[in-house]
Design the sequence.
């Protein structure tokens, strides 16, 4: 067992550990985006990873209604050497946050390309949010 928690709450801030596009034990979007994985499939993977993260937050907080504001979203995209649309992949998660939380879902964001991710996942994301007491 790794020495980390999926969710950490401290002083009204909740930190979500990295989430992969996993359904059960299966990584459903794997490989380099731009060669092995299409942009649309990567966007789908970003939504799956976000939904997994929101479920982890709900399990820990008891309710997503406790989220006052999404503060920061970080999206990591396993990218082929010439792939430069990391922000388009991240937009799928950003848009879903806005759909679910309206203005509370508007956030700062980083989207970066990386050489590899755990389990060969195409996407990994984490977020930081403010919560009520």
Sequence:
């Amino acid at each position: 067992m790794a020495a980390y928690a999926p969710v950490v709450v401290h002083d009204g801030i909740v930190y979500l550990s990295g989430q992969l596009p996993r359904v059960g034990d299966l990584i459903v979007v794997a490989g380099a985006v731009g060669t092995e994985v299409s942009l649309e499939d990567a966007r789908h993977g970003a939504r799956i990873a976000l939904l997994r993260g929101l479920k982890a937050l709900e399990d820990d907080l008891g309710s997503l209604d406790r989220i006052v504001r999404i503060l920061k979203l970080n999206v990591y995209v396993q990218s082929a050497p010439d792939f430069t649309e990391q922000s388009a992949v991240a937009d799928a998660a950003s848009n879903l946050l806005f759909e679910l939380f309206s203005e509370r879902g508007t956030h700062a964001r980083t989207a970066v390309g990386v050489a590899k991710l755990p389990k060969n996942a195409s996407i990994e994301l984490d977020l930081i949010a403010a919560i009520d007491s």
